[in-house]
Amino acid sequence: MAAPDIRVGIGFDSHPLTPGRRLVLGGVEVPHDRGLAGHSDGDVLVHSMLDALLGAADLGDKGTHFPSSDPQYKDISSLLLLERVAALLAGAGWRVSNVDATMLAQTPRLGPFIPAMKELTAVALSIPPGRVSVKATTTDYLGFVGRAEGIAAVAVACLMSP
To answer: What is the pLDDT of residues 91-102, one digit of tens each?
Structure first.
């Protein structure tokens, strides 16, 4: 029996914080005075996961599949995009083994929301929550994140052939 094919991908995303928008991370609305600018809901956590998953499968990036020029994606939930990518991966013969992601935000404090983020992203990917790791850190006041001008996220995903 042949060993399964294993692929790893990395994703990154960042968006500026702006007044008048909801702050959505991992599909969870986080109370804050500003939200992330973006064509969709601006969910940098899910966006980094999308690119990690698509990259691992050599299927392009989120902009290729969900262009910001397309009005159907205006304000769409990024969790719906994650479900679509999971279906695309399954159709291409890939199984999501795990996803590991870190959010970079000086403010607000994200720790209390992480369990819900893990649950929602795991459901969208049709994998157990124990296969999704979500963490948060600050940049100790360095850069645009440290000045609370935006939030960023990085993710690593592992895919396996069935």
So the answer is: 999 999 999 999
Residue 30's identity, in one-letter code, is V
Residue 49 — φ and ψ, nearest 5°? Answer: -65, -40
Name residue 102's beta-bridge partners.
135, 154
DSSP string, 38-104: SSS---HHHHHHHHHHHHHTT---HHHHS-TT-GGGTT--HHHHHHHHHHHHHHTT-EEEEEEEEEE
pTM over 0.85: yes
What's the pLDDT tens digit per position in 3-25?
789 999 999 999 999 999 999 99
How many Cβ atoms sit within 10 Å of the Cβ of residue 153? 26
Q: How far apart are the C-alpha atoms of 58 and 50, rounded to whole Å? A: 12
